[in-house]
Design brief:
alpha+beta, Aminoglycoside 3'-phosphotransferase, Chain: A, domain 2, six-stranded mixed β-sheet, globular, Ecdysteroid kinase, transferase, Kinase-like_dom_sf
Length: 419
């Protein structure tokens, strides 16, 4: 355990993390964080039913490179054998303050629990702490989805539950933005997705297939840009970063859900919170789940590309009217080279997407009826365009399956322009 001296009221803090290979540097970085934890705990201790015995933190593995450090934070008090649970996020002071302000909007709309923050400008470090008040046995949706011991249906229930909190807060007092301006933070990432796609176009003749696919995606993108030139987005409160790691649920009851990490909360298009989760399911979690499924040693882990193409086409064909799971399975089993573990993974993903899209339909039908009577875009087109733009922005992420993303962008782009 690590305990920082300086006050008789400091708490014992157990940090299950190494901040630096060099012991001296590790101790320095540890001391900074333990100091902030102690400040937070001293602020909160009046609400505890006993004396704090110790505090334990262990890391939450994150995707991307945001520069933040995220930990589960458990506070144990005397004579109680279960902890008070939080999520703690360390980042620089400005980012801590900005996210704290964004979280206030989410809290006001009741999509966020209590959020506290403590900062120290002398070391340019802050801690933002999210109270997991509704869930004592919390687990990330990503971990839940990838654990084959939990059912497909429960994965769908968790998504249905969380989306009851989303897309419910239009704000007429915030000025509308152009569609592309609203999605700018997703498109203009450090990974430079547009330049990345364009770099694939200039290929040797031997790799013309890659060049043709990239050129088609760039063509879809430019057509969408032109189509949306005069299209305004009516602002709704959105989480903005609703992927599988930012959704927490109860192990015992997956209908109990809670969101974390509100750094991207803003007013914008309500489809974003559906599109990012859908992209996470299709381009990240599906392949990860294949690796968790039992299969013979000589069995091919990898799903044929034509199977993913068939999967994406099926989703674009039916959009909000997805057929029953047995119809989907029968459709996918007709694909050459598809194996049982591929069907198992596709089934789980499809059940989750059914729940997601049922919720998206309700929100986007209402959005179009109440706030978009002039653009000529249906709720289906709003959803597909959002999926395209969000997926386009993720295309440079190392966590996604790159070929699946390129195929998905082409199929979604075609579907947008054919409707």
């Amino acid at each position: 355990m690590s305990k920082i001296s300086g006050s008789s009221e400091d708490f014992k803090v157990n940090f299950e993390f190494r901040f630096n290979p060099d012991q001296n540097q590790h101790d320095i970085e540890l001391g900074k964080r333990v100091g902030l934890i102690n400040k937070f705990a001293k602020q909160e201790k009046r609400s505890f039913p006993g004396v704090v015995e110790f505090i334990r933190l262990y890391p939450v593995v994150r995707a991307g490179k945001s520069g933040s450090e995220v930990f589960y934070l458990d506070i144990f008090v005397k004579n109680i054998n279960f902890p008070k649970r939080y999520i703690a996020k360390f980042q620089n002071v400005n980012a801590t303050i900005e996210e704290g302000e964004a979280a206030k909007n989410a809290s006001f709309a009741s999509i966020c629990g209590n959020v506290s923050n403590v900062s120290d400008r002398n070391i340019d470090l802050g801690i933002l702490v999210y109270d997991l008040a509704k869930i004592s046995d919390h687990i990330e949706f990503r971990a839940y989805f990838l654990d084959k011991n939990y059912s497909d249906e429960n994965c769908g229930l968790a998504l249905t539950s969380v989306y009851k909190q989303i897309g419910q807060h239009p704000n007429e007092k915030t000025d509308p933005k152009s569609f592309l301006q609203d999605y700018d933070c997703y498109l203009n990432r450090r990974s430079q997705p547009l330049r990345r796609i364009k770099s694939f176009i200039n290929c040797n003749q031997r790799y013309k297939g890659i060049s043709d696919l990239a050129e088609a995606i760039n063509h879809h993108y430019m057509k969408i840009v032109n189509k949306l030139e005069n299209c305004l987005v009516f602002p709704y409160l959105v989480h903005g970063d609703l992927h599988a790691r930012n959704l927490m649920l109860s192990v015992a009851d997956p209908t109990k859900t809670e969101l974390i990490d509100f750094a991207w909360v803003h007013y914008g298009h309500p489809a974003k919170d559906f599109s990012l989760m859908e992209a996470t399911l299709k381009y990240m979690l599906l392949y990860e789940f294949f690796q968790k499924i039992d299969r013979p040693d000589n069995c091919n882990l990898h799903m044929p590309v034509v199977a993913f193409e068939r999967f994406e086409q099926y989703l674009c064909e039916h959009i909000f009217e997805l057929p029953e799971i047995n119809d989907f399975e029968n459709h996918m089993r007709k694909t050459d080279g598809i194996l049982d573990h591929h069907i198992i993974g596709l089934r789980r993903t499809y059940v989750s997407l059914m729940a997601l899209r049922n919720s998206a339909k309700q929100i986007l039908d209402a959005y179009c009826a109440e706030h978009d009577r002039t653009s000529g875009l249906t709720s289906e087109k709003h959803f597909l365009i959002s999926n395209f733009l969000i997926t386009f922005g993720l295309s440079g992420f190392p966590e996604v399956q790159p070929i699946w993303v390129l195929i998905g962008l082409d199929i979604i782009g075609n579907s947008i322009h054919q409707r």
